[in-house]
Amino acid sequence: MLVDNGHSVDLAFSVIRKAPAKLLTLVKNVYDLPFQRNPFHYKNLHAFKSLRTIISQNKYDLIHTHTPTAGALTRLAAIGTSTKVIYTAHGFHFYKGAPLLNWLIYFPVEWLLSFFTDTLITINTEDFEFAKSNLHAKKVEYVPGVGIDLSRFENNNSLKNDIRNELGIPQDAIVLLSVGELNKNKNHETALKAFALVNNPNAYYIICGQGALKDYLTNLASKLGISAKTFFLGYRSDIIEIMKTSDIFIHPSFREGLPVSLMEAMASGLPCIASKIRGNADLIKGLGENYLFIPNDIETLGNAIKTLIANPKKQRLLIEDNMKSIVEFGLNNLLNRMAEIYLI
After folding, report:
1. Does residue 136 form part of some domain?
2. I need a surface site. Which of 2, 96, 200, 233 has the fewest CB within 10 A?
3. Which has the closest alpha carbon to 295: 271, 273, 276?
4. CA distance 185 to 208
5. What secondary structure letter does DSSP report for 34?
6. Which of 125, 232, 248, 102 is nearest to 180 (CA)?
7. What does the alpha-carbon distance between residue 13 and residue 91 come to, in Å, rounded to a whole number?
């Protein structure tokens, strides 16, 4: 959007190898900086020093920064310059119900850095209201997520038979799906226990994602007696196709900003069961609110799965609500909103 409107754009980030080739051809300069998620990692000091030099030399009109660590380093590096800084918070680490340690570490940093933030963008309503009341950015804005390209889901005829054959799942089976890193926050443990509680001989469960808890979760599935019907697929580049071959989406996270995987599931035409947390609650409206559950409530999640399996009509009604709700979070809406913010 920026390039199309005559702007020159540089990129600085730490995962250049994962960037789409088309994206890299659009920009003027690309800087490979060693940002680390751990804010105390020594490589972040090198990233900060490089940022100071890059900002000083290029004298940007605007910098838009993301993620907690890179966002903090960028705002610090821009102090004393004339560059306008926008920071998108993809879900504060301090939130209602967050561990005290999160508040002690992240809130003071965000509070201090907000004084050096021209525009703070939030992507869910809880963060938006909190930022307006407690932080000091010159402007606080809300945007509907990061923008999902809804055209990717139109007329997407999945090779349902091929995917199910790949996994050995019967064509008439009920397939449950979760997508997310295998870590504590994504809460796959609760979903596995709920799936075991369902105990439906015609139901199968697919989990897409990789992470440190793979062995733990695989062993848990075995202990629960569901390993033969549970598939850990790791990283997949065909998530939309897998969603199209599934019947019900489960999103059990403890914390989210505004989850892309849940938006993709909604756009794919899946009925969704999700944890009752910020972000998820921004997305799931109407009848779907009846299928939001407390993240560690195994029984409620299990009952929700049973209810949807037994009621195709309820599945269809949830799909209709999801398809209406997801339009707000489409890429076109996001680009229009960002154009307004950049011009403020």
Report:
1. yes
2. 96
3. 276
4. 15
5. -
6. 232
7. 19
Residue-wise pLDDT for 253-311, tens only, equals 999 999 999 999 999 999 999 999 999 999 999 999 999 999 999 999 999 999 999 99
We report the CATH number of the domain holding residue 200 as 3.40.50.2000
Number of domains in the chain: 2
Q: Report H helices in the chain.
A: 21-26, 43-58, 68-77, 100-114, 125-134, 160-167, 188-198, 214-223, 239-244, 260-267, 280-283, 298-310, 312-325, 331-343
Strand-pair partners of 122: 89, 142
Q: Give CA–CA dist 305/277, Å, rounded.
A: 18
Q: How far apart are CA 288 and CA 320, in angstroms?
A: 10
* Residues 49 and 18 reside in one and the same domain: yes
Residue 10 CA: distances (Å) to CA of 58, 60, 301, 344: 10, 9, 45, 21
What's the mean pLDDT in 238-242?
92
Q: Are residues 322 and 222 in the same domain?
A: yes
Residues 49 and 190 in one domain: no
Residue 339 contacts residue 64 (beta carbons within 8 Å):
no
145-148 LR contacts (CB < 8 Å, sep 24+): 145/258, 145/260, 145/263, 145/329, 145/334, 146/90, 146/258, 146/260, 146/334, 147/329, 147/330, 147/331, 147/332, 147/333, 147/334, 147/335, 148/260, 148/263, 148/264, 148/267, 148/326, 148/329, 148/330, 148/331
Q: How many residues does the chain have?
A: 344
For residue range 86-142, list pLDDT tens digits in order. Answer: 999 999 999 888 899 999 999 999 999 999 999 999 999 999 999 999 999 999 999
Record the pTM: 0.86
- Pair (30, 170) in one structural domain: no
Distance CA 339, CA 342 (A): 5
Q: Are 100 and 194 found together in one domain?
A: no
Does residue 196 sit in the same domain as residue 307? Answer: yes
Asked whether residue 37 is domain-assigned, the answer is yes
